[in-house]
Amino acid sequence: MTAENLPHIRAGHRSFLALVLMPENPIDLWLSALEREIETAPHLFRGRAVILDLSEVKENTPQLTALPQRLRDMGLFITGVEGQAAYWPSLKEWNIPIAPNNGGQLIPLQSELAEEAQQQPKKTALIIEETIRSGQLFQHAEGDVIIMGNVSWGAEIIAGGSIIVYGALRGRAIAGLEGASDARVIAQQFEAELIAIDGYYSVLENFPADLIGKPAQAKLINKRVELLGIPSSKTVTSTKSTKK
Prior knowledge:
With 244 residues, the protein is an alpha/beta fold. It folds into two domains: 18-94, 2-Layer Sandwich (Alpha-Beta Plaits), CATH 3.30.70; 126-229, Pectate Lyase C-like (3 Solenoid). The chain is built from four helices and 14 strands. It has a six-stranded mixed β-sheet with strand order 4-6-8-10-13-14, with no helix packed on it.
C-alpha cells in the first residue's frame, strides 16, 4: 500500500477536570474516611475522573493491590496513577495508565522556564451576565469568574481564582483550581450546595445556619473552608463647618 492510499489520521484534543486522591496508611482507615466523604458530598466524587497519587504509600503497603477495585465499588472512575508508583512492577495488574512524576516530559532549563513564563497569557476574569441554569458547567482556569445573575441548584462553576456571584449561589463553586489557596467564593445570597477551594471542600450542611441565604464569603483557613459574613460598609456623614 502506497502512502497515497493511506487514510489521513485526524487527532483531536479533550481536556477534563480530574480529582487527585492521595491514599494514606492505613489504607482501610483512609478508605473508610473517603466513603464517609462521598456520602457527604456525592456530587464531588461520583462519576468523576480520578487520578491516584501514591507518593504517601509504599509498594508493599497492605491492601494496595485491592485498592482500584475498592474505589470502583465506591463509584470512582480511575484514569491514571502518578507519583513514584510509575515504576512499581506490582501495579502492572491494575491495568491503569501510569504517568511518571514529570508527565514523561524533559525537564526544561531555567532559561526555558523563564521564556515560557513570559509567553503565558495573563490571568483574566470571566464575566457571565446571565443566570447559570441547573446542569450547566462553566470552567475558567485562567482567573476569576464573576456572575451577574444567579447560580441554580445543580449548576457548577470552576475557576482558577475566585468566584463572585452578585445574585444567589445555590450550585457548586470550585475555586483556586490552579492551587490558589487565597481564592474566595463570594455571593450576595449564599446557599451553595458545595464549595471547594484549592482542593479542600465543604458542603452546605457544614456552614453556619445564620449565614445561609445572606451575603457571605468562603475562604480557606488552616486547610478548612470557612464561611464568613461580609462586613457591612459604614456610612460616614461629614458636616461642613461654616466660618463666620
